[in-house]
Amino acid sequence: MFRWLQSLFSNPSVAQTQPQPAVEPVPAPAPAPAAPAPQPRTAPVSFEQLERINGAWHAWMFDRADGGLELSDAETRVLEALAAIVGTQQSGAALVRRMPGLVPQLLQSLRSETFSGSALSRTIATDPVLVAAVVRLANSCYRGTGQSITSVEQAVILIGQEGLRQLITTVAFRPIIDVRSGFYTRRLAQHLWAHSERCAIAARQLAGAGIEPFDAFLAGLLQNVGLIVSLRIMDQEAKDGERLGTDVFLAQLARATRGLCASIAREWNFPDTVAQALLEQGDLRRGAVMSPLGRLLKLADYLGKVRMLVEQGLVDEADEHLFAGLPPEAAQCYAALTEAAAD
User: Fold this and answer.
1) Rounded distance between C-alpha atoms, residue 259 and residue 254, angstroms
2) Whose CB among 18, 28, 37, 72 lies 3.0–4.6 Å from 4's, allowing a Cys bridge?
3) pLDDT tens for residues 256-268?
4) Per the structure, how many domains does the chain have?
């Protein structure tokens, strides 16, 4: 507290011969409003925590216990192929096979507060995969009541705007894995998608003041799309059992694939904050500056990886170092991921 001190008498030791008039106290000036606390600008997870969990994650994904600081020939070819894609006018979105052309249009419609349920239903009805997902979700609300939903329009009304946003986006991005795919697609694609869904759940849960929950959900779901696209390149370039996964390769792969994610987000007209947050995930430097959504996405990515590594028995969630120093909301978010995994 600021205290205002003022001397009312020049010298208290001097005798006063005349009574002094009362002196009105001088009011203390109002304290200046406190400056708002500066918002954190670096990752909410320590560099050491990220390094540990990312190391365990990559060892599991690429089945390699050792790192390595020199690129193999196959890794060089993969990175050069990715650089060629990012550096040309080739459509990044065109590399995402599953994404139907109508989905960006649907998502733009859902961003409006006055969207038309009937018009949306007609659009959804043109994609059998979306129809099945929408009706299945709506019927899950009536499970055990003996009632069922058979109309897309009924389902749209029941699910509501926010539910449709998340459902359509999830179905649109979910990869279709060809059983004839190469080694890396078969090995990694499903794991990467499972992690994306956990990131989306975590990001939506963590979204607070100033961050739109659906934007956070989009960022989480798009987190690995560039890496999923790169799996086909890995399959093509890693010949005759060549292995991928050195430390230097993974660091460069992170930058390239997150850049591709951001490019795809812009092409689909997602908010600039989403594209920026995705791009920031490729910066692995200690103390790198991040946007609010970028910080949120970093935490969601971390919690999603921890949850999956726990499910695989590769880390012990009782280890206090996993969660030391994380924001208070991380505990509730991790609990939601645990509950979702049990469903």
Assistant:
1) 8
2) 28
3) 899 888 888 887 7
4) 2
